[in-house]
Write a structure and sequence with these properties.
The structure is a single chain. This protein has six helices and five strands. The termini are far apart. By secondary structure, it is of the alpha+beta class. It is elongated. The chain folds into two domains: 49 residues, no CATH class; 56 residues, no CATH class.
Length: 144
């Protein structure tokens, strides 16, 4: 793969194209006049398809012969902590704002508001660090 092809592929990925992993009928290659179907590398933003296998850069006029890709919802935020909230509270005396938000399952903005209101106890020096004990107490407050 040469640098020009890498740039083209990177630009297409930025524009929302993804590798096509579905089945492709053999007659698609004959209609496009493809000499070596094994070199084909397809990118798609359904229903638009592009082949980057050779210098022709084929784009079929229809999706006939291509397996329709399944649409998956975009993944939500991934869990950025490897510890459970209880484990984090046991392992640390002070928590960052994002860690306290994770433990309490609230936004960082709400954590900062709770610190300003005096509900959560913070360390005196910057950066803002919140005591694990105050977070543990807040986790224990549940309205049933």
């Amino acid at each position: 793969m040469n640098s020009k092809l890498c740039r083209i592929m990177a630009q297409m990925m930025i524009e929302g194209f993804r590798p096509f992993g579905g089945e492709i009928a053999e007659d698609v290659y004959s209609k496009l006049g493809c000499k070596d179907a094994s070199r084909a590398y397809w990118l798609h933003r359904w229903p638009i398809l592009h082949c980057l296998g050779c210098n022709k850069r084929c784009t079929p006029k229809s999706t006939e012969g291509f397996q329709v890709p399944m649409q998956f919802p975009a993944s939500q935020t991934q869990n950025k902590f490897s510890m459970l909230p209880e484990e984090m509270l046991q392992a640390k005396k002070f928590l960052r704002v994002d860690e306290a938000a994770y433990c309490l399952n609230i936004s960082e903005r709400t954590v900062r508001k709770l610190v300003d209101d005096g509900v959560l106890v913070r360390h005196m020096r910057l950066p803002i660090r919140i005591t694990a004990e105050s977070v543990r107490e807040e986790m224990g407050r549940v309205d049933w």
